[in-house]
Amino acid sequence: MSDEQTSSERLLDSANFSIRVAQLTDLGGLADVLADSFHPRSGLMHWLYPLLRLGIYEDLRNRLRSAIPDYVCLVAVQTSTEQDLSASAPSDALMGTVEMALRPAHLFQFHQTKYLYLSNLAVRSEYRRQGVAHHLLTACESIALSWGFQDIYLHVLENNHQARRLYLRTGYKLQQADPGWSAWLLRQPRRLFLHKRLTPISAAQLT
What is the pTM of this model? Predict the structure, then answer.
């Protein structure tokens, strides 16, 4: 990221929340959102959850502190009202997050050597269906264009129908699917690799 884009800068505002760059003070909330979204506390996972959350926390802390070029972690925060503040509520509540980074391309996958990849899009359960994920994607597209990129890629599981609908509505298209035999052997849903071509007005059209 450029030096001008500070961690406290608001990238996008809606009626109920703002999008900004994540800060180290967000780590606890980020770990909670990601762990709850990707590791439900059921069965054996209930016992493994603290370790999984700790691993997520440490991975995120390393990324946020490393000043990685062409990397950003965004958070959606709900700013408290004056009434909430008077009741000693926190100044903002973390609603969701997403990460975006430049990755090296696999052999024969792309003509270019690197591509912009979006990951870890997650929204806290009580804030879903309020446009949070939609606005996080919008902010990522604006940043991608400011970095000089016109293509974004991501993976989504084949059985994650809600996420697939979101990506299709916002212009992502199927690039390729993981081989069916590997998913069959591991008894896991296939991963779908999606792509969106951006134009300078793409992000503006989503708001």
Answer: 0.82
Distance in angstroms (rounded) separating the CA atoms of residues 70 and 145? 12
Distance CA 74, CA 118 (A): 11
Q: What is the dihedral of CA 1, 174, 34, 198, to 10 degrees?
A: 30
d(CA 205, CA 201): 6
Answer yes or no: are the C-beta atoms of 154 and 99 closer than 8 Å: no
pLDDT digits (tens, 9 = 90+) for 104-141: 886 555 566 789 999 999 999 999 999 999 999 999 99
Give Cβ neighbours of residue 119 (< 8 Å, ≥ 6 apart). Answer: 98, 99, 100, 101, 154, 155
**Rounded Cα distance, 106 and 34, in Å:** 26
